[in-house]
Amino acid sequence: MPAADADTDGEPATTADRALGLVVVYCKGLAMGAADAVPGISGGTIALITGIYERLIRALTAFDPTVLGSLRSVHRSESRREFVSKLVEMDVPFLLALGLGMVTAVVVLARMVQFALTTVPGQTFAFFFGLIGASALVLFELEWLSTPGRVFAGFVGFSLAFVVAGATAAEGLPHTLPVVFGAGAIAISGMVLPGISGAFILLLLGQYDYMTATLNRFVDNVVVIAGGGSTDAFVDAGSVVAVFVAGAFVGLFTVAYVVRAALERYRIGTFVFLVSLMLGALRYPALQIIETTETWTAVTGGSILVAALVGAGTVLLLDRYTDDLEYAGV
User: Fold this and answer.
1) pTM, to two decimals
2) Measured between alpha carbons, how far is 195 from 137 in angstroms, rounded to an integer?
3) How many domains does the chain have?
4) Distance, CA of 114 to CA of 175 (rounded, Å)
């Protein structure tokens, strides 16, 4: 039975209790979305901190898409009750509330991130550098490198990210729909895996700025259409967003499952690889800081250093005031 369907005394929850529970889940979705909207802390980490990680994984693995076939008969009251019962059994209301919270946070923060990247790109990438670097530091455990296999996994992860980050910064991947689809499929892993954020993956693939700007254009054009404006720009931005979401949906039931399987079989080795990816990927924001900073002065250098420290401090404070997370044992 989903956690929202019973109170702490084991009694069936009332409608008000369930509604309040979904509001709480929505708020936790806001926190997860905020984490996944910026490179650094992952939504999976926030799910662990807020105590919904196991429920999230259970709900995702319990979801059966074939239930949507029942929509053809929802006009009958009995079929409608059966359909709703199946959705509740699979904890779909939980997933919807969580997803809505995440989408809300991403839409709001996308506007702020785009403004920051446009006005102070060097300082913004320095902030990302601090977030990613501190996240890797918080996650890393020295005993992880106690076997040659784990050391090799770390070397491969670091090298792969270092090379990809350099290539992305130098040339960048194209913003074609197949690339956007693949980026969405891979980035969604950050929602269900503690340690690596979806925004970090988009940053590494050179799609972060593009998808942030595209999402903002999509939201702007929704308002334009509501006011009777042209639909051309909406269709252009909407097609990119739709392809990204489609990729994320596919990835949720493929890529995330592959990484979860790796965690079950090679837990520590997989985390070594993931954290090493983060360390190697630091090359990308570092190169962007250099590229977007036209002139170096004491003021410019100081502001970049402060931005990096703020990013790192955000992660360290979160780690300081939350319980220790047993990443190797999830």
Assistant:
1) 0.72
2) 11
3) 1
4) 17
Mean pLDDT over 270-274 rounds to: 82
- Cα distance between residue 251 and residue 38, in whole Å: 20
Neighbours of 88 (CB within 10 A): 16
DSSP character for 6? Answer: B
Tell me how far apart the alpha carbons of residues 217 and 75 are, in angstroms, rounded to a whole number: 37
Q: For 243-255, how does the pLDDT look when each residue is reduced to its tens digit (9 = 90+)?
A: 999 998 888 777 7
CA distance 22 to 210: 32
Tokens of 15: 């409608």
Domain that holds residue 163: 3-329
Q: For tokens 């420290």, what's the residue?
A: 309
Contact 269, 150 (CB under 8 A): yes
Question: pLDDT tens digit string along 282-307?
Answer: 898 999 899 999 889 999 999 999 99
- Rounded to the nearest angstrom, the gap between the alpha carbon of residue 162 and the centroid of all alpha carbons in its chain is 21
CA distance 278 to 163: 12
Is the pLDDT score of 54 beyond 70?
yes
